[in-house]
What does this fold into?
Amino acid sequence: MIVIDKLTKSFPHKDKQGKQTEKLAVDGLSLAVRPGEVFGLLGPNGAGKTTTIRMLTMQLKPTAGCIAYGGRDIYSPGEAQRVKNRIGVVPQHVNFDQDLTVGENMELHARLHHMERAERQARIAELLNYVELTDVINDNVRRLSGGMKRRLLIARALIHKPQILFMDEPTVALDPQVRRRIWDLVRGLARDGVTVFLTTHYIEEAENLCQRVAILNKGKLSALDTPANFKEQLGKFTVEWDGENGREYRFFGEKEAAAEFAGKQEAAGGILIRPTNLEDVFIELTGHKGGL
Amino acid sequence: MQMLYDTWTVFWRDWVVLKRRLTKFILARMVAPMLYLVAFGWGLGRSINVGSGSYLDFLVPGILALNSMNISFNSITPVHAERIYHKSLEEYILAPIKPASYVLGKVLAAVLRSLISSAIILILAYAFGAHIMLSPLMLLVLILNAVIFAEVGFFAAMKISTYEEMSQVNTYILLPMSFLCGTFFTTQALPGVLRLVIEALPLTHTSMLLRSLAGGGGAEWLSLSVLAFYALAGFYLSHRAFAKLAA
Ligand SMILES: Nc1ncnc2c1ncn2[C@@H]1O[C@H](COP(=O)(O)OP(=O)(O)OP(=O)(O)O)[C@@H](O)[C@H]1O
Ligand SMILES: [Mg+2]
It folds into this structure.
């Protein structure tokens, strides 16, 4: 169980006049994630998702607030090593050792997590096979394509069988087939009891994968619920049409009401009635368009 | 035990990289000492009088000292790029290891490189006809010196944010020390205050110790203590700087 309580991070920041101020990247975030849950953190660029993950993974000290795994504060003395043994991290950016090959990068990770030789070799082979990188095991990481690097990041994070996996935009730049394979992998991990905490800009990904989704906006939690409940609350049916300022949307709980409204909008172009999706929820809550 | 294993892991990574480039590394390490030996040993040296013995014999310990400093420092500065640009330092921050293991592993890897280049210089110096006495104490001094400047490099890599500033450490700290710390001439030739400052620096003590040992003399305890102090202080500061990153 991950419990986050009033988590806050502020960075020193220069305002428009060049005056030194503080900027709240994460502002009093509180939430809890259940063991074995796939939890999604959504939010526009700069909302504070990466900052949150960095604090959850002990890469950045919170300004205030508290994080506990299994009831123990991760920043209490002597906890660091226990926590780091249990977590795996797929960062938003590529952070391989540029002087090492694919296989050596994997091996370094395994050694740093104290895995025996036989165990680490088997595990590395298995994971590279899963992400289809076996052929490049002896290539320098610089030579991989963008998507291959993303796949390697995911494989590396899994070597030591973490109980909690943090993934910061894990499927960015992946082709649709690979993305679906990664989704299968995440579902499989969750079935095995791994807690997955991910951020994404692909609303479809959150909808497909996450039991619950939190929407973060300007460092604050603006909503937290299951994808189904979000849609239910907004209205399961969406009417959209070409308005004066681009596409406009209205949401309805009942199909009849949506149809009736659409009927009155005959003059408008491109009128359409469809099921509400999580993207509609996201846009309503943040005023941003998510996804690509 | 765990800490030793983790230190080995960090060292292993550097060894993998060094092994791949060992020939290139050795060849590159020969260039600067050769130039020093030719220019100052053969060229200028002939007309320089340093009391007893040849200038070459005076010079070689100085070159050993300054080279050991430069190689050690420059072996560890890639950590800066790993922290700022490649972000590969994150792997170590996320790993269940003690920060001290990382610092120690990196420092030892720099010491290894530094010792390889010291060996190259000694071989070259013999080829140039220098008279140098080898001893275990000399090895100890070379190790201490390498440890100190690996720590200086490590600390700088933790604290400095841009590449330019990193190279300024070379320009404003290492380069003056290379010339002033008893390497090419004795510090007795320096004017009052400057001499006091220079004689407080670790490289000066390394030069003096190496020169005395190379000539068959003993090792000054004070100088050894000064080096040991710098090495310990450097470890403390490096460790603290890295531990701060690992929240
Ligand atoms: N090291 C830092 N120093 C100063 N400000 C920072 C730092 N890291 C993040 N910020 C600021 O904190 C805010 C949140 O950034 P963060 O990277 O967490 O956003 P994000 O939700 O991950 O965005 P994205 O979707 O673009 O990845 C931003 O305004 C950013 O400028
Ligand atoms: Mg981010």
About this structure: The longest strand of chain A covers residues 20-33. The mean pLDDT of chain A is 92. The CA atoms of residues 217 and 286 of chain A lie 6 Å apart. The pocket of magnesium ion (ligand 2) is lined by residues A 49-50, 92, 168 (CB under 6 Å).
